[in-house]
């Protein structure tokens, strides 16, 4: 797997609105899966699937503490990437003719 493949894998994982929200939520601080479940309005199975995709992309890591699974952002560059994306989106909207 080369760097382009990894880039595509990361962008694909972040390309879903729910996964993007999860990552932005976890940037503030690691959270228990139970907190994630309460914070987002979708099923436990759906949440688990999105968390799996983010883990497989290397974006998140998990740690079992007692009986609870906690998730955190593994790649610290993700915050920089999302900040750059927010700036790009703002630039995009600034170029639109309304």
From TrEMBL:
GO terms for molecular function: DNA binding; DNA-binding transcription factor activity. Residues 1-93 form the HTH arsR-type domain. The keyword Phosphoprotein does not apply. Keywords: DNA-binding, Transcription, Transcription regulation. It holds the Pfam family HTH_5. InterPro entries: ArsR-like_HTH (IPR011991), HTH_ArsR_DNA-bd_dom (IPR001845), HTH_MetalResp_TranReg (IPR051081), WH-like_DNA-bd_sf (IPR036388), WH_DNA-bd_sf (IPR036390). This is Transcriptional regulator. NCBIfam families: HTH_metalloreg (NF033788).
């Amino acid at each position: 797997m080369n760097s382009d493949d990894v880039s595509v894998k990361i962008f694909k994982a972040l390309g879903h609105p729910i996964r993007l929200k999860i990552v932005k939520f976890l940037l503030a601080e690691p959270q228990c899966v139970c907190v994630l479940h309460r914070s987002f309005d979708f099923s436990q199975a759906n949440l688990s699937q999105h968390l799996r995709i983010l883990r497989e992309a290397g974006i998140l890591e998990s740690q079992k503490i007692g009986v609870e699974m906690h998730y955190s952002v593994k790649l610290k560059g993700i915050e920089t990437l999302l900040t750059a994306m927010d700036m790009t989106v703002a630039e995009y909207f600034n170029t639109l003719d309304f």
